Amino acid sequence: MDLAGKRILVVGGAGFIGSNVVDRLLKTEVAEVIIYDSLVRGALRNLADASSDSRLTILDDQPDIRDLDRLTEAMAGIDGVFNLAAIGIVASNESPEDAFTINVTGNWNVFRAAAACGVQKVVHSSSASVYGQPQIVPMTEEHPYNNRTLYGANKIAAEHLLLACGELDPLEWVALRYFNVYGPRQDSKGAYTSVLHKVLDRLEAGEPPVIFGDGSQMMDFVHVTDVARANVRAMEADAPSGFFNVCSGTGTTIREVVAMLSDLTGIRIEPVYREAAIPANLVTKRIGGPEKSAELLSFSTGVSLEDGLRSLVEWRERSRATATTGS
Ligand SMILES: NC(=O)c1ccc[n+]([C@@H]2O[C@H](COP(=O)([O-])OP(=O)(O)OC[C@H]3O[C@@H](n4cnc5c(N)ncnc54)[C@H](O)[C@@H]3O)[C@@H](O)[C@H]2O)c1
Description:
Layout: E1 7-11, H1 16-25, E2 32-36, E3 56-58, H2 68-74, E4 80-83, H3 89-94, H4 96-116, E5 121-127, H5 150-168, E6 172-178, E7 180-182, H6 194-204, E8 210-212, E9 218-219, E10 221-223, H7 224-236, E11 242-246, E12 252-253, H8 254-265, E13 272-274, H9 291-296, H10 305-325
Helix pairs in contact: 1-7, 2-4, 4-5, 6-8, 8-10
Bound molecules: nicotinamide-adenine-dinucleotide (NAD).
């Protein structure tokens, strides 16, 4: 889709990734970007920069994706939809009922409202959680669903509802399977990448970072501005509907990340290792295969882990300064 002159709805657009998608979208020639977000987790401050652009509209009734009529109303005349609304791994375990009604039924509402309103394309946020523990590394899009979590189960369901919706109606779609997303505006309460915030919290408090197990757990970190670019590329690309990894293709151990954060902050405190209650379903070696996205979406990550971590450290400093001065 050529974004010039298009009207785009960003569902979950006030969140960590969604607000970065909005920033990226506003660098194109879109006519209008509309935010549909209940603000259950995101925040309007994430859209502070974007708000100065007259093409941005934030629906101010905190609309919920569980409300199909409201979604259908919001999608009238919309060309493309980015769907980022979901609750995360920890919240899904705490509230299984909400997890299902938001991450499955609510997401299904987004897809069928889009189809009913004649939206051309939906770019949906899925997750590498659908893969679970790797049977083979790197994990390409062909990797089996080996998930054991409620969150992953709901993500798998949503992927298939989108696929089925695209069979029933002339709806183009892309489901992006994000790996370990990190960067500015990241909340500190996730099960995976929040490890970065926890390590930084400890270092800044003059305390040793805690590494659970031997620190050899591997993650495939992808910076949020790369994820935002992947979303916009997915909307623009003339690619067949399907599932696409958003990953770097490189694994980094927790030990390595802690060392990098020590170097970046200049706070060198040896980590302590603890025997941990590491959840049985925590993926210990997550590395994605980036080839399909490179070939069909012309997307590859561009932000190095060092530059990306620096952006996170600097954002934390700016946020603290703003909180202190109130400006
Ligand atoms: N952050 C990651 O590392 C990661 C990894 C893989 C997949 N994802 C997926 O990417 C998407 C965005 O994640 P994020 O990290 O930006 O999360 P986030 O919580 O920051 O953003 C989600 C947004 O959706 C909104 N929302 C939630 N429930 C809603 C509802 N019922 N109605 C309307 N809006 C609602 C929230 O208010 C929030 O602004 C999610 O689908 C998530 O599952 C994230």
